[in-house]
Write a structure and sequence with these properties.
With 398 residues, this protein is an alpha+beta fold. The chain has 17 helices and 12 strands.
Length: 398
């Protein structure tokens, strides 16, 4: 294995201070330690990394003892999360060996065998994600040609694509995500393997795919990812009830726009959009035998969501909010004057309104007048609230 070492001094503004503290602590304890993976790749591309992962020859239990605020996680492969706040942690992994335990399908089920950096590098997925950065020496260490792939903007997998996708089918959707995010080209071997083995994605637990789906669509390139998933035959193994339409395109482009402007996004909205067509179709069938609109809507919603969680697990809080958005569409469409104020106060109103607005701009142009009504009424309500507050303040002064 030929090793390439390249001196690189990264912009300190792009380096996470907490990650550097973790590296320093592990190094001072006498262990070998590196920044690794996507953060090194992104730094080389001049991008701001979202996560900083660390690889070391220290065993998980040793790392855990070095940090008071840390926890051991994982069954398939033990990791340490060093906590810095309720929402922030730095992930530390011990170098893996080539020994793994697999199920009959070929999927890796247990992976707690440790090795050295040469073993670890061949266990990573793509060349561009197998780069190690020595913070002290300020050097990028490359064993598999990752630096070359970054310069040529290509994505190659480490080892045989068919075997690697069989071991972990999630690598297929990661390949698609990196292709869109980095504007890189997938190797012909990767493309052929995905076309041939897309069905392996069905072997992955629905719980794991929930987090992967959020990564796929909560970004600035979500519609491109959607189209690639569809092209490679992967989408049906995540959302078999979903078929592309202008509503989905509009929603994904809107999500990307919001992220670009640092506005909040929620998975509730995207899942509600992806499953809306299926919900409508199921509702139309149930309504023929169920006179109650509410009961028919509720049953249709339940059935569609149950079918979805067989593929991608959805938390209960999320499915409850999805149903709220769907149920509110009828209320918004009716534009009942006496219930306007009550509707505006509903905690799900804003998401339901955004949902209606995107429908009016795509698959339901007949709802434009309705969407305009709710757009104007929000402004009117806001103005009237301001006048009331001003009036109250005036009275207090008197």
């Amino acid at each position: 294995m030929e090793v390439v070492s390249q001196s690189v001094k990264f912009d300190k503004k792009l380096l996470d201070k907490d990650a550097l503290k973790v590296v320093s602590t592990i190094r001072k304890a006498g262990f070998e330690v590196y920044l690794v993976g996507g953060c090194v790749r992104d730094l080389l591309l001049g991008l701001e990394p979202k996560d900083f992962d660390i690889a070391t020859n220290a065993k998980p239990e040793k790392v855990h003892k070095l940090f008071k605020r840390s926890r051991l996680i994982g069954r398939r492969f033990r990791l340490v999360h060093v906590m810095f706040s309720a929402r922030k942690f730095i992930e530390v992994a011990t170098f893996r060996s080539g020994k793994v335990q697999t199920a009959k399908s070929g999927v890796i089920v247990r992976d707690n065998c440790y090795g050295d950096i040469e073993d670890d590098v061949v266990r990573r997925d793509f060349n561009i994600n197998a780069l190690y950065y020595d913070v002290e020496q300020q050097k990028v260490i490359d064993y598999v040609g990752g630096l070359k792939d970054i310069s040529t903007k290509e994505i190659h997998i480490i080892g045989d694509p068919k075997l690697r996708f069989e071991q972990d089918p999630v690598r297929m959707i990661r390949a698609v995500r990196f292709q869109s995010k980095l504007r890189f080209v997938l190797s012909s071997e990767i493309e052929s393997a995905i076309y041939e083995q897309s069905s392996l994605l069905s072997n992955i637990s629905p719980a794991r795919l929930y987090e992967e789906c959020i990564k796929l669509f909560h970004n600035k390139y979500s519609f491109e990812v959607y189209e690639s998933l569809e092209k490679f035959g992967l989408l049906k193994h995540l959302f078999k009830q979903t078929h592309k339409n202008d509503f989905i395109k509009k929603a994904l482009l809107n999500t990307s726009s919001r992220i670009s402007k640092n506005k909040p996004v929620t998975p509730v909205f995207l899942f509600a959009v992806f499953l809306w067509q299926a919900q409508n179709e199921r509702f139309a069938i149930i309504k023929k035998r169920q006179k109650s609109f509410y009961l028919a809507m509720n049953q249709a919603s339940e059935e569609v969501i149950i079918n979805q969680i067989k593929q991608v697990s959805l938390p209960k809080w999320l499915t409850a909010r999805i149903k709220d958005i769907w149920m509110m569409q009828s209320r918004l469409e009716k534009m009942h004057p006496k219930k306007t104020r009550e509707t505006l106060k509903n905690p799900r109103f804003r998401m339901a309104y955004d949902f209606l607005l995107l429908r009016s701009q795509s698959i339901n142009p007949e709802l434009k007048e309705t969407a305009d009504f709710w757009t104007k009424i929000q402004v009117t309500h806001k103005d009237s609230q301001g006048k009331v507050a001003h009036s109250d303040n005036h009275k207090k002064k008197q």
